[in-house]
Automatic annotation (TrEMBL):
TPR-type repeats, residues: 9-42, 43-76, 77-110
The name this protein goes by in its record: Tetratricopeptide repeat protein
Gene3D superfamilies, A to Z: Tetratricopeptide repeat domain, Vaccinia Virus protein VP39
Gene Ontology molecular function: S-adenosylmethionine-dependent methyltransferase activity
Positions of the Bacterial transcriptional activator domain: 1-120
Alphabetical keyword list: TPR repeat
Any Pfam family: Methyltransf_11
């Protein structure tokens, strides 16, 4: 290879690095791909190309680049770590665990790879090894709040009252692009439709979709609401929903904080598959009572918990709540329980997750 071609490949590589660091992943992908075309088989260019494709959600193409990087440099721990991430995103957990293990044998000091391995082990049901990997991740700089939350889901530490905000934001930001298809087609999710079918009135003046996601509730609510607003914690989800234009206003923020800051604004609140990320529901129910007009309705779903205690954090890192707890909170905050029903919420690894669908009503004589 002549020196001019090498310099061109190097220049494209550096452009890719600059674009990646600036968050311009499409530009970075093109630059790294150009570098690879000019200088085939260079492990650093292939690895960075794969890492960039992961950021773009191009996981199958990322695997191709990362496997080529590993073929060129088998002891490249970082390439094995990125490969583990791409394989996990493609739903190939056994291969992802193998890649993560190889990465950690080559370089055991990378907290993010320990964290990925821990997640994969947890999802496989290997609680003891998952807990070990979570603690190894924490010792190497992983977010301590996230590690505590995950360990609590395994029963190794006390459960926090709510999911870490950063965890929820990142989880749903990563889902944003294909979330509708994943929920409806893969997980057989229809909670918004079931909640809407149970509403007491045909029309509402001002409704709020709590934790709106990509707006799956909008088609069933929009025809029945003069004004329909939405709120979600995930900036990615909010961006998706604003682009659709199906809501009159979309707010990015915490639902309990938002409800606490308004009084008598809404006559309908709907929270479909949202409260599974909150253990202590008292702030939300109190906020709902404040935000609703007299006679307003609050309908929502939770995962059912029939064991001891008011609520529990499951290994899935979702909370489940007892029906008695829901009824107690409703009474404490002036709601009447108009109806409850149990239906499957969604599938989890092919198995139905039982949900408690609840319709609360604020008395029409409330002050």
């Amino acid at each position: 290879m002549d020196a001019a071609t090498f310099e061109q490949a190097k220049a494209q590589f550096l452009r890719g690095v600059q674009a990646f660091e600036a968050g311009r992943y499409e530009d970075a992908e093109r630059a790294f791909a150009d570098s690879v075309r000019l200088l085939p088989g260079r492990a650093s260019s292939l690895m960075n190309l794969g890492a960039t494709r992961i950021r773009l959600g191009q996981h199958a193409r990322a695997v191709e680049a990362l496997q080529a990087a590993i073929a060129a440099e088998p002891a490249n721990a970082e390439a094995h770590g990125h490969l583990a991430t791409a394989l996990a995103e493609l739903g190939r957990p056994d291969e992802a665990l193998e890649a993560a293990g190889t990465s950690l044998r080559l370089d055991p000091e990378v907290g993010s790879v320990w964290l990925l391995q821990a997640h994969l082990l947890r999802e496989r049901g290997d609680v003891e090894q998952a807990a070990v990997s979570y603690r190894e991740a924490a010792a190497r700089g992983a977010d301590p709040q996230l590690v505590h939350y995950a360990l609590a889901g395994l029963g190794a530490e006390p459960a926090p009252a709510t999911s870490p905000r950063q965890y929820v934001e990142q989880l749903f930001d990563s889902y944003a692009a294909g979330f509708d298809e994943h929920l409806v087609d893969t997980l057989q999710y229809r909670a918004p439709a079931v909640l809407a079918e149970g509403l007491a009135r045909p029309r509402y003046h001002h409704a709020l979709d709590l934790g709106c996601g990509t707006g799956l509730a909008a088609p069933v609510l929009r025809p029945r609401c003069e004004r329909l607003d939405a709120i979600d914690l995930s900036p990615g989800m909010v961006e998706c929903v604003r682009a659709l234009g199906t809501y009159d206003a979309v707010v990015q923020g915490d639902i309990a904080d938002h409800l606490a800051g308004v009084a008598g604004r809404y006559d309908l609140l709907l929270a479909a598959d949202v409260l599974i990320y909150i253990g202590d529901l008292a702030p939300v129910v109190a906020g709902a009572a404040r935000a609703l007009q007299p006679g307003g309705e609050f309908c929502f779903t939770v995962e059912v918990h029939d064991g001891p205690g008011d609520w529990v954090l499951r290994p899935s890192l979702r909370y489940a709540h007892g029906e008695g707890y829901i009824r107690m909170l409703a009474g404490q905050h002036g709601f009447s329980v108009r109806r409850t029903a149990r239906h499957p919420l969604r599938l989890d690894q092919g198995h139905p997750v039982e949900g408690l669908f609840t319709w609360l009503e604020r008395p029409s004589h409330a002050a």
